[in-house]
# Entry
Amino acid sequence: MTEMSVRIGSLTLANPVMPASGTFAEGLARAADLNRLGALVTKTITRELRAGNPLPRVAETVGGMLNAIGIPSKGVPYFLEHTLPLMGAFAPPLVVSISAPTAEGFASLAAEVSVPGVAAIEANISCPNIEEDGRAFAMRPGSTEAVIRQIRAATALPLWAKLTPNTGEVPEVARAAEAAGADALVVANTILAMSVDLASFRPRLGNVMGGLSGPAIKPIVLRQVYQCARAVHIPVIGCGGISTAEDAAEYMIAGATAVQVGTATFLHPGAMEAVIDGLSRFCAARGIVRVAELTGALKREETDEAELEWAEPPT
Amino acid sequence: MRVAKLAFTVRLRRIPPIPQVASPSEPTETGAASQLAEVLSHRAVNAEYRHLVLRCGAPTCHALPGQFFQLLCPSPPGEAPFLRRPMSLYGADAAAGTVEFLYKVTGAGTRGLAILATGDALDVFGPLGHGFTIDSAWHHVVAIGRGAGLATLAPLAGAAGTRGIGVTALLSARRPDLVVSDTLFREHGAQVLTVTDQEGTSGPAHVERLLRGLIAEGRCDAFFTCGSARLLRVLQRLAREFGIPGQVALEQQMACGLGMCFCCVRDFHSGDGIVHKRVCWDGPVFDLLEAVA
# Structure
């Protein structure tokens, strides 16, 4: 049997597979065994009450889907009184995803949810659906460093920074988050995108623009995970179009310590369990004793380093 | 599983059960699963609707009236539906191990379903959501719907029948040949009234006259409806006027079917305000007066 545990900073997970924020809620317990997962990650919560975006909120594309849900949130009291006890009934450590309009708001919210039962905080500094024109903190190193530094000062819990794929400065943003005190990076959120209905000439999302997820984005985010893992010394959690154990293995080999599965769960509620079982078999078939050995196992010695400089601009 | 077992018991012993429907955010139904079901038969019932019968095991065949499934539709030529498609239950038979759907071909998903042949496999995920609640104290109820909503109402015929409750089915469609579920309602002893656009009988004023007649005859202890916002508004008015309870099955575009993605929200009355609820998780069957028509 493959040893499946992985370490994300001070946190040890039973296996490297967890849900992506926004694609998981207690309803999944009706169709999957949540106790088998490496961690549970909540839908992003905000301090303010948010109704979310106008409908339609999803549209399908070739090999993926667009969403512009807009983070409907019932606020912190609802989370503490309702969601936290519900999630506490399950064994895996609970990661709470948070968002706020300002760095100060992020910090105070992080402090409010740093309560017993919460194992880590995932700072969603990359949602394409809540800021004007799809902007997000994680698009630039400066704003990333500022917001992560404030959250870091506000909580003693492990802090994960969820980065955006919608930036040309992937390694710089990764280094900024690390420098500001993030314990891990989640790479990445959805890719800012849109779609037009040719029958009506209207956008197919009520919010016009939204985030693309699913198998279609896997090669792009895989490249970004590779770039981030090369740029920082903290663990990188890969998230983007993972549907199978093979997808997860690719991410780990490219540098991820763990993975998040999102859209695939919508199609197959047992997708995360299948990825866990498949990863174990993948390692066993290759004589790999611990799944953690996959992380960064990419063989690239035949590549001339100079040829790859474009992927890792010098700091 | 508890609710599913009740349904199974009914079929064998003919004891009318009283389904225990929990408060919307705390469903008691459990054990949804995705499974590969085998196509037993698949045929066109008229110019627009197709009837699909699948062989399956538990919990699929234990589905209750008003519940739905998420179908992983095959790819029709030149198209690739990515997400599952929600489809309300047309019939389920736990003893026979079958589940049935009645659908209209409208998009890539249903075009994919349409190519299924006998013996093919279809990945069905469910049963999902809260179905209709039937009070055994009722003597006679009215099921009224339009278009594809008629398929959703169909399982009520048998469910009411086994409880000894009379049913009047008021079925609305564009043309007489597009009325569906009428045969099934008749087989279970329901009185069937059809109204159509072609005959000029489907307008809300005429439908309201028919309903007022049924109410006057004491044949309307509850309303069940699906498929028309216009009919919903008529029913809400009559429900308030006469204090008649009712339930509406709502449709909405969905992604996950398990209350996780929040894409299927709709507006509902709550106290003095309007709240969002998830059709897949809090419904798809809601109180008639709660729904914003």
